[in-house]
Design brief:
It is a single chain. It is built from twelve helices and no strands. The chain is mainly α. It has one domain: MetI-like (MetI-like fold).
């Protein structure tokens, strides 16, 4: 019995080691991203209130009490960095989910129903021409700065990119023999799309979602830096960098922590995207095995 357990553990360890050797980008990116997510989720356990101000301790250098020092208002930089991860991750994940979901639905319709394709793509081309930053500034001027406005502003320009991706996949799949056989047998368009065409879009959409997530995190930080993103009272990496730029020479730790966290998050998500692309693309998989 013990020998069987040891043998099973050895087999599992060999499989994990083999997977790690072949998918280094995916493994490293996933580990870093999971660590950032855990830190953001457990922020109350690791730090105090990010909005607590202590003017007597403004711009305090890193020490035991404040591991990353304090900012110009005496707020804990470490706490604000951890809570800022929540904002960035929420924006990235929600933008990726919304743009992929809406783009998938529109792309399937445009790719399968050829009569609708020209009209749908004209609308998508018009949306793609709108920069996310300018759209966010316009929406905020009409409403107010909020995370919801930022998510909407970033999602709208990303939808056409997903639509184009899904549409190209549908074009390459709908004329295949098994799809034509389903059409000849009288399968309803809805059932045919869901059962025969939709599975072919999963792999490229997963990879595209990672790139959209990374792009959304960067855009949110840029908007917050410009004052058109998260409200000033919300701890976000863009707000922290913007408020610390005047003290970079005197207190570089105030801008180093959010900048490094932003770079690590985007880097890990891009690594995950590259690893998933290599893993899910059959041509790249065969090339790596060779």
């Amino acid at each position: 019995m013990k020998r069987q357990k040891l043998r099973s553990c050895r087999i599992h360890l060999e499989a994990i080691s083999k997977f790690a050797r072949r998918n280094k980008s995916l493994l490293v990116g996933s580990l870093v991203f999971i660590a950032i997510c855990v830190a953001a989720t457990c922020a109350p356990l690791f730090s105090g209130d990010p909005s607590t101000m202590q003017p007597s301790r403004r711009l305090a250098s890193p020490r035991v009490e404040y591991l990353l020092g304090t900012d110009a208002l005496g707020r804990d930089v470490a706490a604000r960095t951890l809570y800022g991860a929540r904002v960035s991750l929420a924006v990235g994940v929600l933008v990726a989910a919304a743009s992929v979901s809406l783009g998938l639905a529109v792309g399937l319709v445009a790719g399968y129903f050829r009569r609708l394709d020209p009209y749908v793509m004209k609308v998508m081309d018009a949306l793609m021409a709108i920069p996310a930053i300018l759209l966010a500034i316009a929406l905020i001027s009409l409403t107010k700065a909020s995370i919801g406005t930022v998510i909407i502003a970033i999602t709208i320009p990303e939808i056409p990119r997903v639509v184009r991706l899904v549409r190209s996949v549908v074009f390459s799949v709908r004329d295949l023999p098994y799809v034509q056989a389903a059409v000849s047998s009288g399968t309803r368009p809805t059932r045919l799309i869901i059962r025969h065409i939709l599975p072919s879009t999963v792999a490229p959409l997963v990879v595209q979602a990672t790139y959209i997530c990374a792009s959304a995190i960067l855009i949110e930080a840029s908007l917050s830096f410009l004052g058109a993103g998260s409200p000033p009272d919300v701890a976000s990496w863009g707000n922290m960098i913007a408020s610390s730029r005047l003290f970079i020479a005197r207190a570089p730790w105030t801008i180093f922590a959010p900048g490094l966290a932003l770079a690590l998050t985007v880097f890990s998500v891009n690594l995950m995207g590259d690893g998933l692309r290599d893993r899910l693309d059959p041509r790249l998989s065969r090339r790596n095995l060779a």
